[in-house]
Amino acid sequence: MEPISATIVTALALGAVAALKEVSAQAVKDAYAGLKNLLQQRYSRVSIAQLEDAPDSKVQREAVEEALKKAGADRDEELLRKVKELMDAVQTHAPQAAAAIGVDIEDIKATSLRIADIVASGTASGVTARRVEVSGSVVIEGVRVGESGADPSKKS
Questions:
Q1: pTM to 2 decimal places
Q2: How far apart are CA 106 and CA 15, in angstroms?
Q3: Which of 46, 64, 69, 125 has the fewest Cβ atoms nearer than 10 Å?
Q4: pLDDT 10s per residue in the chain (156 long)?
Q5: By the 8 A CB rule, do 131 and 107 touch?
Q6: Are the beta carbons of 98 and 119 closer than 8 angstroms?
Q7: Which has the closest alpha carbon to 46: 68, 62, 61?
Q8: CB 72 within 8 A of CB 81
Q9: Nearest CA to 29 among 41, 42, 20, 40?
């Protein structure tokens, strides 16, 4: 299972990608602002400015994740509720935001796994998987890295 601090960082990166675009739904912007405000109130020593500037940077995500762990943010129930609110808002209103940071899965046990139509921009890795146990089929297709703004559903 992905560490809670990594989930928080993923939500922040998704929020930065989605909420900072002018065309984003207000629900995404509000959820991102709520998460940021709570982080600033409770964990003021954890800076997310560089993550906001480069949400696709693995280095920045790891630095924020480490700072959140040290601060004990991964045990903060209210913070985790804000993370869920943001993830739900992004999934509903801006699912394309995940493409900008790629897919990073870890500690998965499943009977099957399908990852498709991923377009990662900037320095995102596309798909990264660690400690994945699948007893059935695994399908990874349509992964493109470095294609800014491409629509994964329209294959060339």
A1: 0.61
A2: 21
A3: 125
A4: 456 677 787 778 878 777 767 656 888 889 999 999 999 999 999 999 998 888 878 888 889 989 999 999 988 999 989 988 888 888 788 766 765 666 656 667 777 777 766 666 665 566 667 777 888 887 777 777 665 544 444 444
A5: yes
A6: no
A7: 68
A8: no
A9: 20
